[in-house]
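User: Please work through this fold.
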Amino acid sequence: MTTRRPFTLAIMAGTLLAAGLAGAAVAQTAPKTDPKAETGKPAAAPGAAVKPEDQVLARVDGAPITQKDLDIAAEDLGERLPAMAEAQKRDYVLSYVIDLRIGAKAALDAKVDAEPDFARRVAYFRDKVLLDDYLAREVKKAMTPEAARKLYDDTVANLKPEQEVRARHILVETEEEAKKVHARLKGGEDFAKVAGEVSKDPGSGKEGGDLGYFTRDRMVPEFAEAAFKLEPGQLSEPVKSQFGWHVIRLEDKRVKPLPTFEEVKDQVENYLARKTQQDLILALRAKAKIERLDKAEDKAPDAKPAEPKKP
């Protein structure tokens, strides 16, 4: 009869950093086989311990592919990675990186990098990866346990107490049917048994008509008004709504309990991350000299990104 909504703390109404901030990596040419040429440092001495991320897992034309290369590729693939066991996933990503290296070399041989727009695309993806990494670093700094707890405490302190009720109902198509149901219940028949027999609500009917706890705004007005007038144990007269005719029994009334920090921790952290990102971009905009040549001077200035909703 109604859709239940989970408690949310701070859902963003809009954000400057919409889908464009998912990390994307530009395909690079194979790394040089001489570590000294790449880093300016001599190669590790024979027998020296190799860090797990530096472990060589494959070679393509002599160029190594390390665990770190796989980690970067897996991060880039993200949700595009098929659901599979870890060993299979590792093999999948390694094959992907091998194909990437082979394909990149073929592209260089075909002088794809000489195409007019190639350098611009590389520059774009370089800027994108730089921004992604910068934002990730700054978000990590801001995401302290203390900051998350403070946001939760401030939010809870500003929440107003809200009443909710727990009720059962039986839904039928006509007023006549509802009156018959009402008479059966008044006669002492078990509510859950009658609901299982005649209720047209496919969800609650199987649960003895139980709707659980709900606030007034969760139900259609006619139903909510009737339910909230009752006291625990009381039965309503037949009530008409857009869904049909209801007979309601109130089970309980209470003040809606506040969610614990652990229950909304992910939402709190998500809000902090998005707010940090937005604040950083707005601060950078304020410092930069930006000229928008695509708009006439007499038009309104650029609109600011929507502020995240306060939790």
